[in-house]
Amino acid sequence: MFLRTSRRFFASAAGAAAAAAAKLPVRNDFTHCVIGGGVIGLSIARQLSKRPGTSTLLLEQHSSLGTETSSRNSEVIHAGLYYPPNSHKTTLCKAGSELLYALCEKYQIPHRRTGKWIIAQDEGQLESLERLHAHASSLDIPTGWLTPEQVRVREPAVRAKAGVLESPLTGIVDSHAFMTFLHGDFESAGGDVARGARVVDVQSIGMGGDMGYRLTITDGTSTIATNEGEFTISTDTLINAAGLSAISISNLLLQQTHPERVLAPYYCKGTYFSYSSSSPKVSTLLYPAPVKGFAGLGTHLTMDMAGRIRFGPDVEWIQDPRDLKPNESRMAAAVAAIKTYLPGLREEALAPDYCGVRPKLAPEGMGGVGEVDFVIQEEEGYGGFVNLLGIESPGLTSSLAIAEMVEGILYK
Fold this sequence. Notes:
By secondary structure, the protein is α+β, with helices and mostly antiparallel strands. It folds into two domains: 30-74 and 177-263 and 372-411, 3-Layer(bba) Sandwich (FAD/NAD(P)-binding domain); 116-168 and 266-360, D-Amino Acid Oxidase, Chain A, domain 2 (2-Layer Sandwich). 29% of the residues lie in helices and 26% in strands. The chain has nine helices and 21 strands. Strand 20 and strand 21 (385-389) form a beta hairpin. It is elongated, with a radius of gyration of 22 Å. Mean pLDDT is 91; it is low at 10-25. It holds the Pfam family DAO.
């Protein structure tokens, strides 16, 4: 069944139906409709809901908000070290990090500036860190080298044979508390949420959406596809922030007149591993040196707000984004990767915990970190339709800056 949080949702749709029956001019049900109730969709909906004289609807296909990539990640506030200078990933991560820290401090959302160590074990990895340091310096992102003595004093359990590059701006955030705040602030501004609402069709109204968009929606919580319970809503502007489903949503509209712009989605699964031992004790995020062309940042050590250590994610390309079952066969490779920088790891305390899936715009071998940027654009020929595709890491960090960017696209 559809789970809605505001009576105004019904009132607007009923008002449009009554106007149509009376053959009166029909205005759209909403000013803004955002598809996708993860951290990106919530941030955008919250931003747009604050514009005077507008109405904003947020659609989420699941029965709860933020249950896909937004809640299945490392919860890291990134500094923006890895991406090209003029990319969305760099500019939005840098801006988003400042906005996120400020918001968390203002509203007491649990977070902590833990800092992050990027670790080299040989000369080749050290050269990679030197390039990363030079790149960060060119972007005015602070990084610094640690001496072997500093490493031993601060984190005696860590092995760093060749060197450590520190990122002091990196931290962690309670992503669930952050999304709870965004949801509450959105509704306080008059926004509407429809949960269990899967978009199955998108049509432009008028030429190129100049009169808006009409969406057909069905029960997203049902495992059986059926027309029963379908309804439609109309909106002046449409924002596709559907995460793992974003390409499918984009294709619903673009395939009608621009089949050459239809895209294929790719999915990269990452397994996270829990750690039940209190030894070795670490208080800093630990990352291996980045590998060019790799689809992730390596199996790294992060922690939650309670200080519990976890490792991951690894990289596993999959066909089905619903494949969220941890795979025991990933354990051996994870242990080997972790022991390069944490030799005292107690293998018996490590266990597969949960999985997350990254939405990718390029297939295996072509989607390395820093090689594929976010797509955030108003689609040519579709005024008021903003597409957000391939929003993976650093999406959580960038979310508030992405929201400001989308508002700027719509209102220029």
